[in-house]
Amino acid sequence: MVDAPVLITGGAGFIGSNLVDVLLAKGYAVRILDDMSTGKRSNLPMDNPKLELIEGDVADAALVAKVMDGCSAVVHLAAVASVQASVDDPVRTHQSNFIGTLNVCEAMRKAGIKRVVFASSAAVYGNNGEGESIVEDTPKAPLTPYASDKLSSEYYLDFYRRQHGLEPIIFRFFNIYGPRQDPSSPYSGVISIFSERVEKGLPITIFGDGEQTRDFVYVGDLVKILLQAIEAPDVEEGAINVGLNKATSLKHMLEALREVVGQLPVISYVPARPGDIRHSRADNSRLLQRFSLGQTTPMSEGLARLLGR
Ligand code: NAD
Ligand code: UD2
């Protein structure tokens, strides 16, 4: 396998560290740039000689240019992934979530590196497309600084594609779950919160009636797609939804959790969160056209792996 490392920004985080495992297993060398704001060393096999961790900020243009040196491709995941943090402090999060992307584009242009895989989000659609499966050309409606930074990042990546021959593959992730997702904030992914509470025997709160649905993707299935994107011979224009086109209600997800653990803690129902989306589901035709999804992980199995059962 090639010795030039793949650069993974945000590689010490939830999705990044799961990708690192797969890349190392395939013989890739991996270089991570991560400021360790939510990333953890304990997520990484630090004793692997093919892994290099550089602690620093993707908003630091000189550092990004330096770490880019000699890399074969980039997976740009570094971002403040908490939407609430972007609402509370838009200026700070803009540095990571947008300036970071621009720095990556510029450093790639100067270094002559072409391939970049980018983590955008279903948040760019806002409330549009609710109730149907969302196709990529659904009008965008970013409702938060987080979503605006993701959409702007997409536009800049596309500018660098047209102007400078970069090869961006832009993925709009729907709800990703699995091992190493941080459950510590009330705005963390619902599966990470519920799983942690089930393990600790703490009560679970459902906002609304529990019939709201999401398109949950197991992180192991996502990283297989990211790997294909790194290796794809060509890129095509246009962002790509990453979802299974499958709606799972919270009640159904809890039922699957119960099957894994045997018994659930007390569940209480409180009013829905203001602005909560009722149904979110990806039309994934473009994903299926361009990549192979293979056999995806059933929720019961994904939850069992998350809980180490
Ligand atoms: P995460 O918080 O675990 O990972 C983000 C990583 O980026 C962390 O390791 C963090 O320390 C690092 N980071 C943050 N700011 C940085 C900076 N300025 N410089 C360098 N490193 C920085 O979250 P995640 O869920 O693994 O998210 C990965 C990417 O996927 C993010 O871009 C996120 O917006 C996107 N995404 C995630 C989901 C999801 O369901 N988890 C959905 C849509 C999009
Ligand atoms: C996701 C993103 C969010 C924003 C939004 C845009 C995550 C973690 N959140 O929100 O940042 O981009 O998409 O559409 O990726 N819930 C409970 N109990 C809990 C926690 C959550 O009932 O303890 C509910 C919540 O009200 C929602 C559902 O679970 O109805 C899913 O919540 P989520 O925060 O995991 O994800 P989502 O899709 O609302």
TrEMBL record:
Residues 6-243 form the NAD-dependent epimerase/dehydratase domain. This is NAD-dependent dehydratase.
